[in-house]
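tool=predict chain=A
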Amino acid sequence: MNVTELAKMIDHSLLHPTMTDEELRLGCELAVSYDTASVCIKPYAVAVAVDLLKRSNVKVGTVIGFPHGNSSIEIKAKESKRACKDGAQEIDMVVNIGKVLSEDWTYVENEIDAILKECRHSKAVLKVIFENDFLPKDYYKIKLCEICNALKVDFIKTSTGFGMVKTADGNYNYNGATDHDLKLMRDNVDPDIQVKAAGGIRTLDDLIRVKEIGVSRVGATATKTILDEALKRFGT
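tool=predict ok
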């Protein structure tokens, strides 16, 4: 285990709704200082991030249909095309969750395929977000894995980090990347498709734990905390 390897597992997340342009800039600088795999930035900020990161090895990623996946296929495809044109190298798309729960698998496959075609045209990586908190049965997650296998996407991903589920008492709760879901996804997706964990990865031990399950990327806002602890524990 070394810090460089761990840093290259992290997509530094810069997606909070309140994040200012200055905070986005500082987040990109932090990602460069730790040499993370990427930043995952808001679509409007892709071109700015590309400029900020042009002398680094940190890739620019962005999100499509975020966070609820409700845009039409046409809009999601156009959003992907524009993001790639602006310089995004990695695309994290949210599936249409209602269509998943409706078991309209033709629609779901067509949607993922449309965005995948835009990514392949621009040589960008596609990560498909399941948003597992909204999926009450493993069946839905397994079926999504099967569709992603058939289309040969690059990554499957647990969550957006913003999929709060209303509970019986009226409060909202969020599990994010659970060990159960990560194992289920890793077991049901082809070996050459990678798994990304997002939602609740806040400590070095969290990162190491999901790595041992077979996760190769995580979305994290606690990048500094995680990697500072890694430096203390493992050295440079």
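Residues 3-234 form a domain with the TIM Barrel fold (CATH 3.20.20.70). The longest helix spans residues 105-121.
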